[in-house]
Amino acid sequence: MTLSISGLHASHGATRALRDVSLHVESGRILALVGANGAGKSTLLHCVAGLHRPDQGQVSLHGKDVTGLPVHQVAQRKLCLVPAGRQLFSDLSVADNLRVGLHGLKLSGTAERARVDRVHKLFPILREFTGRKAGLLSGGQQQMLAIGRALVREPAVLLLDEPSLGLAPMLVTQILRTVAGLAADGVAILLAEQNAAAALQVADHGAVLENGRVTRADTATALLADEDISRHYLGKAAAESAPDAPVRRLPAGLSSLAH
Ligand SMILES: Nc1ncnc2c1ncn2[C@@H]1O[C@H](COP(=O)(O)OP(=O)(O)OP(=O)(O)O)[C@@H](O)[C@H]1O
What we know:
By secondary structure, the chain is of the alpha/beta class. It has helices spanning about 40-50, 70-75, 95-100, 110-120, 125-130, 140-150, 170-185, 195-200, 220-225, 225-235, 235-240, 255, and strands at about 5-10, 15-25, 30-35, 55-60, 65, 80, 155-160, 190-195, 205-210, 215-220. The chain folds into two domains: about 25-45 and about 70-80 and about 160-259, 3-Layer(aba) Sandwich (Rossmann fold); about 85-155, no CATH class. The relative contact order is 0.17.
């Protein structure tokens, strides 16, 4: 499944949040969308997911125009958003939060269990804490649950909004390594991150968003090597904390990540 965004403009009242944004993500690839606070990353993801209606432009999934479709109709086309701040039901258990993800799919009990099992293999801690309230999980565990809730829908296109926010570097690596595994299994991934260093380490391509505009788009390797990008988005500390070798180069099949 391919995601194509073309000439997208969007606003919040008088604030113009996106200006003529065009991006493309192929199946099995990760596009890192990097940019500062307020650059327009969330608005872009919301436009793609059907949560915000763009003023102009087009979003298509595998050549089919989905621009402006309501969120449930976009979701039916196997596109899932893992929202910023996780947006879990904190009083519900881990198992019930995963059940929320399965809602409306009309699967048999066996098929539902198989999907939940797959998420448990990916994030064994979620099996261990299956009865625990989501609000009592650590930030990293909550992020795993938020991703798991999307994965039970078996998305072909996955949008991730700041999955690293508030997580310790080791957990960021673990989460992004899982994301790389999903791409290796054929999912098209649009990864919005302020943590540009970590995102570009796992991505194939990157796009820099500034004031709602894409100001650079290139391979992740080229962006990581670029001095301007380095100065503005990677920062010395971020560059130093990044793994030596790109995470993407590690074995990344889902099955290999399960152990
Ligand atoms: N609900 C809203 N009402 C008014 N303005 C908004 C709203 N949401 C976002 N904006 C504005 O739109 C612009 C883009 O915001 P957006 O949240 O998409 O950026 P972002 O890159 O995701 O940043 P952040 O990481 O802070 O969410 C900003 O100027 C922001 O202030």
